[in-house]
Structure formats: structure tokens, C-alpha cells
């Protein structure tokens, strides 16, 4: 298993109140799965995603990522795991505005110490893979929303990570562009990538192979939804 | 290494906020410029002083006959003091160790006339050794020679100012000028000497370029004493082999002359090297004071940098979050922001160096003050600005590094 979570708990202290965002989550994700995590706001899905992405550590339970126990890692070690094994995709793209597309994609490689020439090559390859070769030297504000998100996907892919964590990747895009992005995710999945998709949109969630619903800090539903997925992908093909 | 990227990012930030960056750098610019300007004034004063004392001779001891009134002179003679004399000079040469040579000199005020022009000047009777001991050289003709001295010839060497006053286009060599009631032939014109604008110990300030030099023997034979009881000599300059033990040798000289004068204190001893050292000590205190004032300005500049860096960190919280999410470690963020404040302070430092240099050049150009910029002062000022950059950049950078990635990535 790529990800193994047992009785995961996370408590926050807000003022004098103690809030339990996660109250015993059990979850296993194998390599090359395409999982969606759905839930209303306040359900704990952001907390779960932060912990899955090694941005945060749990206060209880166990999280094994690629057989590494995350709970006991130092800040630097977590940074390295994020850098090498996790690719983040955000709702708001989170590209650095002063850097052009190529430099944005190079950034994670810079932090892992890849030399300049090699990282330029890798970044170009990643951008080409997403059909952005003509846009490599554009700044984010010169790109459309869909292009920005594709740059962000290229940035997530460039390190060849173990999992891709996408947090509402279509939230800031129109429906058509959103579908295009989802199409990319399915392609990436078919190429063998492991994808975890966090969303609150049912339609988006159904495009994953496995749907997880989280509510009040607990997983309430965890099932496969292969059929609907293929159905939707045909629909997208028709739209094209 | 990400140094290149960090520097690149810092320059991008600078370009984006040109005015803000300039204002931030202003403190550093002024600080560095004033450090350089102040150090250059101090260094200039030091060079001037060294030049001044070099003229008096760094290996020399100077004995001056005191300026006394007629009554005091009479009093001294009554107590058997002969005043400064050739005997003193002879005794110093014969007895005192490490003496290379002595140059006795007599002085008096005199009226100088040539054709219809007249001027008051100091007439100085010297021996040939004078030119060597005090580094005097003739611009035209010769200085007083041993032959002049031996034959008590009526010749003179004039200062360059007198030469230009009396002989604007003529060649002064071979002309005769009248000094008091004596006609003297000009045999040489002295090379220009820098002015003594201040008094060095007992040495009265005067314009060396308006002096007239004649053989000491001629002085004593042809000219009346200035005062009835005036001493034979006004000054004896003693040249030593080196400047070691100069104070001890000066003591021996003092005891010797004191004995000759029957313990009458009618002379004073000046050691140029000692005066130089003392002056240097005073100036050092002054320089430290000036330097501290400039350093405060640098400190204020540093606080300015810290302030703006804190604002930058706030502004770029989200960027920090993104960088952290994609794998930047805390020290990556730390070095990124320190690089940024370093770039600010280094650019400020460079501008400050340029302004400081031009400032000290214009000071010496537009005023009488001599300035001298040393590489050392530039390095000190620049190094200071770098230290300020790192020190005051550290706190904001640490703050940036400590930000929680989760919170900063959600920061609007």
C-alpha cells in the first residue's frame, strides 16, 4: 500500500475550545488509484488533505506514506517528502506571479538540488506534455485559467511524484475548462499515476475510480464507481 | 545552489518596488557615504600632518631659543646664560651619541629692497648642512655652500615668494638685493615649501617661502643683533641616525644645553616625531567619534531594511506557503530573504561608496580641507553595510521561515 492510515486523529485548540477535525480515520490507498475525497466544509477534508500532503502532522494514529511513518518526521524531512514524492495542485493554481511558466515548473527541482541544465530540460518536457510549449516564457498573468492550471499540473508532475494531490483543481475554472483538466487527470491516471482529488462537486468526484466521503471527521462512505466514470469520459469525448 | 535564483528573485523584487527599495537603501547610502567621507577627512588630516612633520625631519630634534623680551634677556645674561650658541651646537655634535649632523641657524627680521620694491622678511643665517638636514633644495642656482660660509660672502638664497615678488620675469640669479644696509648677491632660489599654517610646538608659524637664507658667518659678521642681548643662534636642528631612542637622546641634549646655560630655561626642545604621535592620538579619538556618528546612520539604515523586509514577508506569505508546499525547507526560505536584504544593503553600499567618494573629492576641491580616501575605508564602510544587511535581514527572514505552510498558503 502506498498510503496506510490507521485511526488518524487531529485536534486543534481554538481559544479555549478543543476541536477534533479528524476523529479516527482509517484509509488505505494503493499505487495507481484515482481517489476522490468529498465532504462539506468543516468536515475535515482539508485537514486530511494537509496530513496526506505532509503539510501537517496528526495528533494521534498512524500515517504510513510509502512505508515511512510521517508522524515522527522533522520539518526538513517532511519538506523533502513533499518535494520528491508529492505533487500539489491547488484551486487557485498558486503559481509564483513573478516567474514565467518554465521557472515555475523548475521550482521544485531547484529545491531538490537538480542542476540548472537538467531541470530546464525536465521542466520543458513537463510543459510539453501538457501542451504548453508555446507558453513556456509567459508569466502566469499572461495565461488563461486553464493554462495556469496546466502549468501547475506540470509543476506537480515534474518531480515524478508518488502521488498527485489535487485540491479543488477545477474550482476556479469554467465548466468546459474544468472538464479539460479532468481529462488530463484521467490521462495521468492511465499513465500510472496515483491521484487523490479533493472536491465538493459530485460530478467531479464521480470521475475518480473510488469515491470517499468524509463527514464530521470520519469516513462515511468509501466505494468504487468505475461505471459512472467511463460514462462521463464518453460524454467529454462527445463534447470535444 | 539556489543562490543565483535567490539573487535573481531579489533583483526582481527591487525592480518591482523601485521607489520603496530606494527609500529603504537611503539609510545605508547615507551611512556608507558619511563613513567614507569622514574617514577620508581624517586620513587627509593625517597625511597633511605627516607631510608637515616630515619637513621638520622625522629623525630630527629641534632646539629653539625662547622668544624673550629685552628685560628677560638681560636677566638671563645676568644669570650667566649665554643663550643658544655655536658652542652648544659644537658640544652636541661632539658629545651626544647617534648624531649625524647639526644645523645651527640664526634669525632676524629684515627689510629687503630691490629697485623700488621693498618687503619685510625673516633673514636666516645657516650653514651648508642646513639644506641636507631639513631637505631644502634650490629651485634655481645653489643653496649656501661651504665656500660661502668659509669666506663670509655676501650672498643669499631667497624663497620663491620673494623671487616672484621682486623678479617677475628677470632671472634673480646674480642680481643684488639690499637687506637692511647690506647688498647681497642672489645665488639661488628655493623650491616651494608648503605653508606652515599652524604652530608646531615652539616653532612659530610663518611662510617659509618668504625667507632669505645667508651664510651663518656672514650673518654674524655683517648684521646687527635684533636685540642687544639676543642669543647667537635661534635654532639648532639635530639630525639623528634613526628615530629610535629619540626621546632619550633629546633628554641628553636637554641636560647638556641646560648645563651650558646654567640651568636657565631659555630654550625649548621639539621632537617632531613625538608631536606627530601625539597629534595622531588626538586625531584617533576624533575619528572614532566621527565614525560612531556615521555608524549610527548605518544602524538606522539597517532598521529601515528590517522594517521593509518585515512588510515584504507579510506581502509574500502566500508565496512562502507555495514554496514550502513544493519542498522548500525552512533554511531555503531563510536564505532567500536574507539574500534579498543583502542585495538591498549591498546595492545601497555601492551607491554609498560612490557618493562618499564624490563627496570627499568635492570637499578637497571646494574647501581647504585635504581628504584622502583609502581602500581600507571603502572596505570598512562596505563591510559594515553587508553586516547590517545580514543582521537586520535575519529577523524578518526567520519570521518567513517559521511561517506555517498551511496557514500561509491560504493567506489572501
| Fraction in helix of chain A | 25-40%
Principal-axis shape of chain A equals globular
The level-1 CATH class of chain A: Alpha Beta
Shape of chain B: elongated
Compose a concise summary of this entry.
The complex is a heterodimer of chains A (240) and B (412). Chain A has helices at 45-52, 75-85, 101-111, 116-129, 145-157, 175-190, 202-205, 226-239; strands at 3-14, 17-29, 34-38, 60-65, 68-69, 86-89, 163-167, 194-199, 210-215, 218-224. Chain A is an alpha/beta fold.
SSE layout and pairings?
The complex is a heterodimer of chains A (240) and B (412).
Chain A: E1 3-14, E2 17-29, E3 34-38, H1 45-52, E4 60-65, E5 68-69, H2 75-85, E6 86-89, H3 101-111, H4 116-129, H5 145-157, E7 163-167, H6 175-190, E8 194-199, H7 202-205, E9 210-215, E10 218-224, H8 226-239
Parallel strand pairs in A: 3-8, 3-9, 6-7, 7-8
Antiparallel strand pairs in A: 1-2, 1-4, 4-5, 9-10
Helix pairs in contact in A: 3-4, 3-5, 4-5, 5-6
Chain B: H1 3-16, H2 18-56, E1 60-65, H3 70-78, H4 86-95, E2 99-114, E3 117-126, H5 129-133, E4 138-141, H6 146-150, E5 155-158, H7 160-166, E6 176-179, E7 182-190, E8 212-215, H8 216-222, E9 235-240, H9 246-260, E10 267-270, H10 272-315, H11 317-325, H12 330-366, H13 375-402, H14 405-409
Parallel strand pairs in B: 3-8, 5-7
Antiparallel strand pairs in B: 1-9, 1-10, 2-3, 2-6, 2-9, 4-7, 5-8, 6-7
Tell me what the structure shows:
The complex is a heterodimer of chains A (240) and B (412). Chain A is of the alpha/beta class and 240 residues long. Chain A has a single domain (31-47, 75-239), classed as P-loop containing nucleotide triphosphate hydrolases (Rossmann fold, 3-Layer(aba) Sandwich), CATH 3.40.50.300. In chain A, 38% of the residues lie in helices and 28% in strands. Chain A contains 8 helices and 10 strands. In chain A, the strands form 2 sheets. In chain A, strands 6-7-8-3-9-10 form a 6-stranded mixed beta sheet, sandwiched between helices. A 4-stranded antiparallel beta sheet of chain A has the order 2-1-4-5, covered by helices on one side. In chain A, a hairpin with a 2-residue loop joins strand 1 (3-14) and strand 2. The longest helix of chain A is centred in the C-terminal third of the chain and has 16 residues, at 175-190. Chain A is globular and about 50 Å long. Chain A starts with a strand and ends with a helix. With 412 residues, chain B is of the alpha+beta class. Chain B has 2 domains: 3-53 and 278-409, no CATH class; 67-265, no CATH class. Chain B is 57% helix and 16% strand. Chain B has helices at 3-16, 18-56, 70-78, 86-95, 129-133, 146-150, 160-166, 216-222, 246-260, 272-315, 317-325, 330-366, 375-402, 405-409; strands spanning 60-65, 99-114, 117-126, 138-141, 155-158, 176-179, 182-190, 212-215, 235-240, 267-270. Chain B has a 6-stranded mixed barrel with strand order 2-3-8-5-7-6. In chain B, a hairpin with a 2-residue loop joins strand 2 (99-114) and strand 3. In chain B, helix 2 crosses helix 12 and helix 10 crosses helix 12. The longest helix of chain B is centred in the last third of the chain and has 44 residues, at 272-315. Chain B is elongated, with a radius of gyration of 33 Å. The mean pLDDT of chain B is 88. The interface between A and B is medium-sized, with 25 and 23 residues.
